[in-house]
From TrEMBL:
<dbReference type="InterPro" id="IPR004864">
    <property type="entry name" value="LEA_2"/>
</dbReference>
<feature type="transmembrane region" description="Helical">
    <location>
        <begin position="43"/>
        <end position="66"/>
    </location>
</feature>
<keyword id="KW-0472">Membrane</keyword>
<keyword id="KW-0812">Transmembrane</keyword>
<feature type="domain" description="Late embryogenesis abundant protein LEA-2 subgroup">
    <location>
        <begin position="98"/>
        <end position="186"/>
    </location>
</feature>
<dbReference type="Pfam" id="PF03168">
    <property type="entry name" value="LEA_2"/>
</dbReference>
<dbReference type="InterPro" id="IPR055301">
    <property type="entry name" value="Lea14-like_2"/>
</dbReference>
<protein>
    <recommendedName>
        <fullName>Late embryogenesis abundant protein LEA-2 subgroup domain-containing protein</fullName>
    </recommendedName>
</protein>
<keyword id="KW-1133">Transmembrane helix</keyword>
C-alpha cells in the first residue's frame, strides 16, 4: 500500500533555447521594397508614344477626310446711299454687305484686305475690308462703305442711265483645323452689277 501512495516526481520540462539566428530573424527590420524607376520610365515612354500616334492619326484623318477648302467671298447686297451724276461724271456712296462663308471644320482668320470697283476697265472705287475671323461651319457678314466716282476723261456717255460696274477682292488668311493643321487660303471675289441712275438702285448683282 505504501508503494501505491508514493508520489512519482515529474521529469523537468526540456527547454530549447532559441538560437541567435532565430532571435535575430524575428526582431530584424525588414527592408522596404525598392521602387522600380525602369517601370515608370517605360510607362512614360508608352504614354508619350500614344500621344504622338494619336496626333499623327488625327492629322492624316484631317488631311484625307476633312481637307481644308477655300472659303467663299461674295457681295450679298449693295445699296446706294448718295448719288450725283452728270453727262459724263458720277460720284456715289455704296453700302455693301460682304459675306464670307467658311465650310471647314476649323476657323478661318483673315487679315486686312482691299477690293476694287471698276467702271469698264477703270478703277473708280476701293473697298477696305477689316481683318476678322469666321468660325467653323459659319458665315460672317461685313458692312463695307465704298466711295465710287469718275471724271470726264474716265467716264463714258451716261445717257443710257445705267452704269455697268464690276468688283474684285481677295482675302488672305489661315484655316485652322483642330489646332493641328493650318492651311493658307486666299478666297477671291468677282461680282458684276448695274447702277441705275434714275432710281438710284443696284440691280442684277451677280457674283461667281
Amino acid at each position: 500500500m505504501a508503494d501505491e501512495n508514493q508520489l512519482v516526481p515529474l521529469a523537468p520540462a526540456t527547454i530549447h533555447p532559441r538560437s541567435d539566428v532565430e532571435s535575430a530573424g524575428k526582431f530584424a527590420v525588414k527592408p522596404k521594397p525598392k521602387n522600380h524607376p525602369e517601370k515608370s520610365s517605360k510607362f512614360l515612354v508608352y504614354f508619350l508614344a500614344s500621344i504622338v500616334i494619336s496626333g499623327a492619326i488625327l492629322l492624316i484623318f484631317s488631311s484625307i477626310v476633312l481637307p481644308a477648302t477655300t472659303p467663299r467671298v461674295k457681295l450679298r447686297s449693295v445699296a446706294v446711299k448718295t448719288l450725283l451724276h452728270g453727262n459724263s461724271t458720277f460720284n456715289a456712296t455704296l453700302i455693301t454687305e460682304l459675306m464670307i462663308r467658311n465650310r471647314n471644320f476649323g476657323s478661318f482668320r483673315f487679315r486686312n484686305g482691299t477690293g476694287q470697283v471698276f467702271y469698264g476697265t477703270v478703277t473708280v472705287g476701293e473697298m477696305k475690308i477689316r481683318e476678322g475671323r469666321v468660325r467653323a461651319r459659319d458665315t460672317e457678314r461685313l458692312r463695307v462703305t465704298v466711295e465710287v466716282g469718275s471724271n470726264q476723261s474716265e467716264a463714258r456717255n451716261l445717257s443710257s442711265g445705267v452704269l455697268k460696274l464690276s468688283s474684285h477682292a481677295q482675302l488672305q488668311g489661315i484655316v485652322n483645323l483642330f489646332n493641328i493643321m493650318k492651311r493658307k487660303k486666299r478666297p477671291e471675289m468677282n461680282c458684276i452689277m448695274n447702277l441705275v441712275l434714275r432710281n438710284q438702285t443696284i440691280q442684277d448683282l451677280v457674283c461667281d
